Structure prediction request, 147 residues.
Amino acid sequence: MRITFLIAVVALTAGLGSCKTYMGYDELRHLRKGMSSGEAEKQFELEPASKYNITHKSASYEARRYSMQIGTTQTTASTGGYVGANGVYVPGTTYTSNQANTLGYILLFRDNRLLYWGFLTEFSKSEDPLIVALSDELRSRYYSDKK
Prediction:
């Protein structure tokens, strides 16, 4: 009974540890314009945080927003040491935690093919007039989704 419970706890912990919630820069290196949405999604091994359908000049586009890790915040807290009843100093304990900082990263598809990808601000700065035209609608959908 105890062994079965221990195995179940280890299996559950291992399973939860592999749940990926964001992607990193290194996963972008395999993206190529024109690749299918399925091929692009395989690069990240996670589901998009949200999807938007956009229409522009009677053409349909699908945007998928992922969470991209852009940094890490490390927090350290310490408890003070004390002198025990026997006169021996007992040092305090230091606790450290790391928190991933993320930002939305968007993949834009037309006819199930990757057209453009980047952070929201990159869309409005593109040299492609179509991408710039789509950036206003993307911005509106992105921020309405974040509320």
About this structure: DSSP finds four helices and six strands in the chain. The domain at 20-71+101-145 is CATH 3.30.1450.10 (Beta-lactamase Inhibitory Protein; Chain:B, domain 1).
